[in-house]
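Check my protein:
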Amino acid sequence: MGKDMNRIKAADIELVDKLVAVNRVTKVTKGGRTFSFSAIVVVGNENGIVGHGLGKAKEVVEAIAKGIDDAKKNLIKVPLNKGTVPHMQKGKFSGARVMLRPAAEGTGVIAGGAMRAVLESVGVHNVLAKSQGSSNPHNVVKATIIALSQMRDAVQVAKQRGVDLDKVFNG
């Protein structure tokens, strides 16, 4: 699965945005301190499409708007199976490692912080997730997106193996 194979365009999709984190950064100059903001935003249609973006600006609202625009340029399609992920998957980005496992109906989204925002945006209702290593929101969001982009449903597995769908389940 190439990185660009499951990318999609933002046109004609109703996307909901979630703010993951806002960070105030300071640049010290000869004239004093200059404050600016960086915002991490996740967008999704809550039905299998999700993207993340980073926006930086002098004002918080402007940083969020830039983050949303960036997120719309980085959308991926994720196969979902009855409101959960199709199989267990691990993702890693820099120091952040995440693990996603399918869960039974009624479990809910068992995930914290940045992972929760990504999983809710993609439309997962039942999942067991664990974030290990770094808790940096940038890296956790990217690790979660990587794990979701590696998800394959039964149809994709059958096509890749060149066998019928029945053979995937019955061996």
